[in-house]
Amino acid sequence: MNDKLNQYRSILIAKAKKCRDLAFAKVKQWSHEVAAFLSSTFFLKHFAAMVGSVLLLGLLTFYFLTCYTRLGESVQVPDFTGMQLVEVQDLARARHFELAIIDSVFIVGKDPGIVLEQNPSPLSRVKEGRTIYLTITKSEPDLVQLPSLVGAYDYNQYARKLKRLYLKPRVKERVFDPKQASNTILYLYYEGKKITEQDLRNGVKVPMGSVIEAVITERGANTVEIPNVVCMTFEEAAFTLTSANLILGRIEEDQTVFDRLSAYVVRQEPAPSPGARIKMGERVNIWLSQQQPAHCPSEESSTNSPY
To answer: Per-residue pLDDT tens for 163-209?
Structure first.
């Protein structure tokens, strides 16, 4: 039994050695064939051609990209800010830049078509043909809504609000009103049209840069009614103006005057009118003549004058 097992084992070992020898022989033969192929003229010629083709293709690609993108080359972006769009277009065309307007803004006092901002920034370096994005001024102003007077009846306070909206506040008229604080807004005007508080509640829109006029109050404590000193003597006029807390300003005399104190006032500036008032401390200019104007009352009537 043991002899048969040993015999069978020997047969298996012999077959395994034979298979191993055959495999080694095959590998050795294949190795020789591969080495012979790699060292053959046919392979070397075609391998060299393939490597050359790859290198040539790489060089051509690099050259093409260099020419197309101007690799390593750049130009300086001019400073377009503050220039008119027509000038910018000519300059950009000469430098081979493209232009694109991305925004337009209305600015009071600036002509339309002026470049305000640009991207890329001025003096930066970019490739030729780059698009420059611009923000310019426009001709048509934006409409802004007038703020409400609620909580801002004081003219100075309301004027600051208007200025923040790029509007121009202006005093149209001062109305004497002892019951309200000075500078209280009574009405607004735009292009001669009256704007009431109810109009503001409903919403009033005006173009930026518009002039908004206001009628405001003033208190009598700081103003006085303009006295009429025409037909008075210089002495009487000086006393009347001083009593009203006004200052006697420029004095003009014609050729007839030889005694200033007894000379008559024939004209004054500012001229009096019903309800007209003037700030205390303001100057009143007068013109004198030795002869009393013809339209003045007689001396008998003047003695009954309140002045």
So the answer is: 989 899 998 888 877 778 888 998 899 999 999 888 888 999 999 88
Structure tokens at 80: 């377009």
Please answer whether residues 188 and 213 qualify as being in contact, where contact means their C-beta atoms are separated by less than 8 angstroms.
yes
- In CATH terms, are 75-137 and 143-218 the same topology? yes
Topology (CATH) of 143-218: Trypsin Inhibitor V; Chain A (3.30.10)
212-237 tens-digit pLDDT: 999 988 766 577 889 999 999 999 99
Q: Rounded to an integer, what distance in angstroms lies between the CA atom of residue 196 and that of residue 160? A: 19
Q: Where are the domains of the chain?
A: 2-69, 75-137, 143-218, 224-302
- Classify domain 224-302 by CATH number: 3.30.10.20
Structure tokens at 55: 């290198």
Cα 238 to chain center, whole Å?
54
Retrieve residue 178's tokens. Answer: 């002892």
pTM value? 0.44
Sequence-ordered list of residues with C-beta below 8 angstroms from that of 268, at least 6 positions apart, any chain = 228, 229, 230, 237, 284, 285, 286, 287
Our separate counts of H helices and E strands in the chain read 7, 16
